[in-house]
């Protein structure tokens, strides 16, 4: 598999791109979760247990 | 595996698309749909935010199971044409990342279920993830041709979890839905195994066609299809569903048995294109989608 091609050059532009995309994605996911947990808390307050 | 992406001490961070692929999105779509149907068919009403969060938790749990399955089976996947291009066997992702991703996602899904629904649903979600990873992937799959039969229970959990998330308790209808997916799994996967048989043989997985032979597999497909049809129709005469579901289940199950009979009562030649098997496999997916849709329609639009 990968050992057949050990000399593949390291692509720094690709490294930066992936870091940027992952940071953006993580930001959106964490933001979304903050909203979700807020709305779950609100919903649980109006729904009788 | 990750060496192709490394240079000195640095390695490329995983691409999000590869992490997404680890979750087996196509399998997840069926899981989400059946879980949603279980939740919508339950009596009473659920707050939309809590319903959404519960389904999200089930989807994440399924994704975690898929990721852990691919983590464990990376070397097997590399031997099969159908799976060789997955992120791990293709070398686009390292196993450590996949393991961390899977465990993290599993823990988060259970926490979300606990927070949004109830502890009963969270326990069921935990059991389903552990069952899929430890009982099916690690124990049964590499050891016995009955792997699909018992392992089918893992895929049968979502409608039950959806129902329990809405009500906090188990009832006969979600158990019937559990049974339906449980009995649907063998003919569905064995139809696939018949036309990718060489793949499974190359990977050394003891799937039914590889171990017991094609003829025995075909007979078993027909047997399970008949039992599954009975289980699919049963909720109607037992009074758990109405006529809308009843007629849908009767007609579609008859078709399922007919297609299974075409597979079960024939033997394939050397250059066979396996059309009846491919037809049964495709129909089995549509069958489950339509039947679960009918359960919900029957609940909301009783005839």
TrEMBL record, chain A:
Instruction: State which residue ranges cross the membrane.
Output: 25-47
- Name of the featured protein: Cytochrome C oxidase assembly protein
Identify the species of origin: Sphingopyxis terrae subsp. ummariensis
Q: Which UniProt keywords apply?
A: Membrane, Transmembrane, Transmembrane helix
Automatic annotation (TrEMBL), chain B:
What topology in the membrane does the UniProt record assign? Multi-pass membrane protein
What biological function has been recorded for the protein in this entry?
Converts heme B (protoheme IX) to heme O by substitution of the vinyl group on carbon 2 of heme B porphyrin ring with a hydroxyethyl farnesyl side group.
Query: Which NCBIfam families does this one have?
Result: cyoE_ctaB, PRK04375.1-2
Enzyme nomenclature, EC number: 2.5.1.141
Q: Which Pfam families match?
A: UbiA
Q: Which keywords annotate this record?
A: Cell membrane, Heme biosynthesis, Membrane, Transferase, Transmembrane, Transmembrane helix
Miscellaneous field = Carbon 2 of the heme B porphyrin ring is defined according to the Fischer nomenclature.
Where does the source fall among the domains of life?
A: Bacteria
Q: Fetch the InterPro entries from UniProt.
A: Protohaem_IX_farnesylTrfase (IPR006369), UbiA_prenyltransferase (IPR000537), UbiA_prenylTrfase_CS (IPR030470), UbiA_sf (IPR044878)
Q: Where are the transmembrane segments?
A: 27-44, 50-72, 98-115, 121-139, 221-238, 244-268, 280-301
What biological-process GO terms show up in the record? heme O biosynthetic process
- Coarsely, its chief localization is membrane
KW Chaperone (keyword) present: no
Q: What pathway is this protein a component of?
A: Porphyrin-containing compound metabolism; heme O biosynthesis; heme O from protoheme: step 1/1
* Nucleus listed as a keyword: no
Q: Which GO terms describe its cellular component?
A: plasma membrane
Reactions performed catalytically = heme b + (2E,6E)-farnesyl diphosphate + H2O = Fe(II)-heme o + diphosphate
Q: According to its UniProt record, which protein family does this protein belong to? A: Belongs to the UbiA prenyltransferase family. Protoheme IX farnesyltransferase subfamily.
Coiled coil ranges: none
> Which top EC class is given?
transferase
For this entry, the protein name equals: Protoheme IX farnesyltransferase
UniProt GO MF annotations:
protoheme IX farnesyltransferase activity
Subcellular compartments: Cell membrane
Organism expressing this protein natively: Sphingopyxis terrae subsp. terrae NBRC 15098
């Amino acid at each position: 598999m990968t050992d057949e091609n050990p000399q593949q050059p390291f692509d720094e532009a690709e490294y930066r791109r992936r870091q940027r995309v992952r940071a953006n994605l993580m930001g959106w996911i964490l933001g979304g979760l903050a909203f979700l947990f807020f709305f779950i808390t609100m919903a649980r307050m109006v729904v009788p247990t | 595996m990750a060496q192709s992406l490394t240079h000195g001490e640095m390695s490329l961070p995983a691409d999000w698309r590869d992490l997404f692929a680890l979750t087996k999105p196509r399998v997840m779509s069926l899981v989400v749909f059946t879980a949603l149907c279980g939740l919508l068919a339950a009596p009473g009403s659920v707050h939309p935010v809590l319903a959404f969060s519960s389904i999200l938790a089930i989807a994440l749990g399924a994704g975690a199971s898929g990721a852990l399955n691919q983590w464990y089976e990376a070397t097997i996947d590399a031997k099969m044409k159908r799976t060789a291009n997955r992120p791990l066997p293709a070398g686009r992702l390292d196993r450590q990342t996949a393991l961390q991703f899977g465990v993290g996602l599993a823990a988060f899904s259970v926490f979300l279920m606990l927070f949004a629904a109830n502890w009963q649903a969270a326990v069921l979600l935990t059991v389903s993830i552990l069952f899929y990873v430890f009982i099916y992937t690690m124990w049964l799959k590499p050891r016995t041709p009955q792997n699909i039969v018992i392992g089918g229970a893992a895929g049968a959990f979502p409608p039950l979890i959806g129902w329990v998330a809405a009500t906090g308790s188990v009832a006969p209808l979600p158990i019937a839905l559990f049974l339906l997916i449980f009995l649907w799994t063998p003919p569905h996967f064995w139809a696939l195994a018949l036309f990718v048989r060489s793949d499974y043989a190359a990977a050394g997985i003891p799937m039914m066609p590889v171990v017991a032979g094609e003829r025995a597999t075909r007979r078993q497909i027909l047997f399970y299809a008949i039992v599954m049809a009975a289980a699919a129709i049963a909720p109607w005469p037992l009074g758990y569903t109405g006529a809308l579901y009843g007629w849908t289940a009767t007609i579609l199950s008859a078709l399922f048995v007919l297609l299974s009979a075409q597979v079960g009562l024939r033997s394939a030649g050397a250059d066979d294109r396996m059309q009846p098997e491919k037809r049964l496999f495709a129909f089995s997916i549509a069958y489950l989608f339509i039947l679960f849709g009918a359960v919900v329609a029957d609940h909301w639009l009783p005839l």
